[in-house]
Predict the 3D structure of the following.
Amino acid sequence: MAIRQSIIIDCDPGVDDALALLLAFASAAELDVLGISVVAGNVSLTKTQYNAQRIVALAGRAEVPVHAGAAEPMLGSLQTAAVHGNDGVGGARLPAPAAPVASMNAVTYLGDNLMARPGEITLCCLGPLTNLGQAIARKNDILTSARQVVLMGGAAEGGNVTDNAEFNFFVDPHAARLVFNSGAKLVMIGLDLTRQVPITRARLDQIAALGNKAGKAAHEMLAFYSQADTAMHDPCVIAYLLKPELFSGRDAVVDIEIDDAGRIGQSVVREIPEGGRGNALVLDMIDADGFFDLLCERLARLP
Ligand code: BDR
Ligand code: CA
């Protein structure tokens, strides 16, 4: 049996973030969710925080702390995403929070935990990387204390906000650049991969048929979200921790564009030059059926 992994989930729920949280909570034998740090992204920080609290309540895991982090990107102002609806969860009926937001700021929480347990904690990043960027600004080698950083963001080709940029990197390109230059062990899951796992009508029906509260809520959220985006982006990060054999990719050099206004937030993925070193494992293939089987099997375990 594999060792249980200690993880912190940095997120901006967000429908697909919510699904990722549920997948993690449903996998307690493999994943010890130490805490959740939230950031502004898909919707404002007030909303991402509230949604994280409600997902924790839905999963019956009120003991998992939710820490609030950055309300704005490192530079410039926040751009939100319409696909998650005005409240960030597609208007789904979710339970009220069962616990208050933790008093410690997310950036302090991330830094303190990484320093206290060097090499042990996996950071799962599902939103703009502002909290991590701010942690690096405080202590520039902080992310090298993570066991690994597995993040959803970027693309080797194309984008979903502009022709070149994916949402999480577009919203805070400066933070993304700090993370990719941090020396941390990085795993990048971009649009090239997440677009291989669209939520179809048949998969939606399968989730609705689970019959538990989590399945009903997941169905409500996804029914709204899938009208505008079908890719199950963020749950891929958690699925990678649970079943890495579903994924494949290659080590590469990734740079984040911050200067050229037309390409801001683009992740430029290059082959490693001979004798050089990469800075990320870039995953680009997933077994879609294996992913959805895992997701449905796990969601069924929740209340
Ligand atoms: C990413 O952007 C957000 O809208 C999703 O939650 C996901 O993290 C996909 O580009
Ligand atoms: Ca997200």
About this structure: The chain has one domain: 5-299. The chain has a mean pLDDT of 97.
